[in-house]
Amino acid sequence: MSREILEAVRQIEREKGIEDDILVRALEDALLAAYKKTPGAARHATVELDSGGDFRVWSVALPADVEERLIEEARERAITELEAAEIENGERSHTLVTDDDLVIDWSDVPDEQVKRADVTPENFGRIAAQTAKQVILQRIREAEREMMYDEYVDRVTEVVTGIVQQAGDRNNVLVDLGKVEALLPRSEQVDGERYEQGSRIKAVITEVRSGTKGPQVILSRRDPELIKTLFELEVPEIADGLVEIRGVAREPGYRSKIAVESHVQGVDPVGACVGPRGSRVRMVVSELRGEKIDIIPWNPEPARFVAKALSPARVREVLVDDDSSEATVVVPDDQLSLAIGKEGLNARLAARLTGWKIDIQSETEFARAEADAAFGGQEEEFSGRCVALLSTGKRCPNTALPASHYCGISAHREIAEREAAGEDVSAEIVQPAQPEADEPEAGEAEEVEATQATDAVEEPAAESAPTAQEVVEEEAAPAAEAEPEPEPEAETEPEKREEETTPAE
User: Fold this and answer.
1) Which residues contact 132 (CB under 8 A, 6 or more apart)?
2) Do residues 340 and 372 lie in contact, with contact meaning Cβ atoms separated by under 8 Å?
């Protein structure tokens, strides 16, 4: 063995980044394998390589009983390793374990029982040299795979950039990461995205598997971590820690919501993520192939946070239940579909982002539910307002009469009488009445309430206050009595005709 071989080993170490000890052990195993190919080779032997490049092959002779015991231990150890590999791979191995393939460890055997002899051959020959070369190359490949696995297993959840190598098969896409080829499976692809060969894409490393052909890196384009990393690359405030992304909710390919918080006074977290004229968020949307992104300011108050999470819809009121983590959101009637979103997408993303169970109701639905609760006889929740429902779906704005749940309007009094008679009026809806009688305008409602309040003070509690319709009838009665009767007018006309005809006679 010459120094040229050691120099070649050190050159490989520098180029591949493999440790020197690994290559030296690989060279010793290669020389041992080459020795066993020579005729008359000893059954057990070792190879020692010194710093000068010289090597020696030593044969090892053991007592028969010790050798049999060591072979049995080596066989059991090999079978255990084979079974563990079968469990890991999920496939049954058909490899046969022979005594020639067993690696016997005689390090614990006393030196006086071990007989060594120098059996270094003068020349290995062509077959032995080829065997040594194959073993060295195999060990170098194994060392490279181990290094690749150690490198990428620590980069799980990291976003990497690669070039699409093969996109013909729709189920799996191969991505070249430089040192290793990664796999983008169908389950981690975004619906609607096309991956053309040679295009550059960003993806998240979700898993690293150790295989016989090297580490297998699994990528994902659906992971929410992709959005966080893209914003960190585009927004300097996030990279510097001035703005923090508190949560991400994503429906890949359709819409995403992110909650951001500022740690420095004077820094707008939403404006920092949007950028000048939307340049920063536009770059993220471009990388995600047009996926819409809602940027929500994070708020420690659940009601405000839930209201903001439902944007772009406008929220009128939020009622939260801390015990069950449920929130009831009241929105205007024209904002109900926008708050829910297409197929419930907006509400689903808001629930994921906030961690609250959200129930969205329109103002009409909420008023109807409030009226139903009042009809249910919950006296402690009665607010003193008329519980009748108008045809518009809203509650009557008038104040209820004393000892009643209804106001003094005749239609509403009829409902009260029917309810007192035992009829079910929980779903009763009053048709819109004339403004001057049944349903007063906003200004007239105050007059009616004032009239009811005055009458309630002057009259005994047992008597009901006069309704607006009765007031109108009383005012109309004197006007009708003041008009002249038609009969006298009819009698005066013949008398005049008689007076005119008398002189003519």
Assistant:
1) 30, 31, 33, 34, 124
2) no
Q: Which residue(s) pair with 296 in the sheet?
A: 259
Q: How far is CA 248 from the centre of its chain?
A: 6
Please list, in sequence order, all residues whose beta carbon lies within 8 angstroms of the beta carbon of residue 92, skipping any fewer than 6 positions away: 86
Strand partners, 435: none
Q: Which residues pair with 297 in a beta bridge?
A: 260
Segment 263-297, tens digit of pLDDT:
999 999 999 999 999 999 999 999 998 999 999 99
Strands of 384-488 (E only): list them. 389-390, 429-430
pLDDT tens track for 193-204: 888 888 899 999
- Cβ-Cβ contacts under 8 Å for 216 (sequence gap 6 or more): 183, 208, 209, 210
Give tens-digit pLDDT for 317-365.
Answer: 999 988 888 999 999 999 999 999 999 999 999 999 999 999 999 988 8
For residue 273, which of 310, 222, 234 has the smallest C-alpha distance? 234
Longest pairwise C-alpha distance within the chain: 181
Long-range contacts of 232-239 (CB under 8 A, 24+ apart): 234/275, 234/280, 234/281, 234/283, 234/284, 235/272, 235/273, 235/275, 235/280, 237/267, 237/269, 237/272, 238/272, 238/273
Contact call for residues 271 and 258 (beta carbons, < 8 A): no
Q: Please confirm whether the linkage preceding 302 is cis (ω < 30° from 0).
A: no
Burial of 391 (0-12, 13-18, 19+ CB in 10 A): exposed
What are the φ and ψ backbone dihedral angles of 228, each rounded to 5 degrees? -60, -45
Most confident of 168-182, 212-226, 230-244: 230-244
**In terms of DSSP bridges, do strands 200-211 and 214-220 run parallel, antiparallel, or are they unpaired?**
antiparallel
CB atoms inside a 10 Å sphere around CB 286: 11
| The pLDDT of residue 330 | 92
- Tokens representing 455 are 């009458």
In a 3-state reduction of DSSP, which class is residue 295? strand
Whole-model pTM: value is: 0.57
Cβ–Cβ under 8 Å, residues 409 and 465? no
pLDDT of residue 144: 81
Distance CA 461, CA 429 (A): 28
Grade residue 502 by pLDDT with cuts at 50, 70 and 90: very low
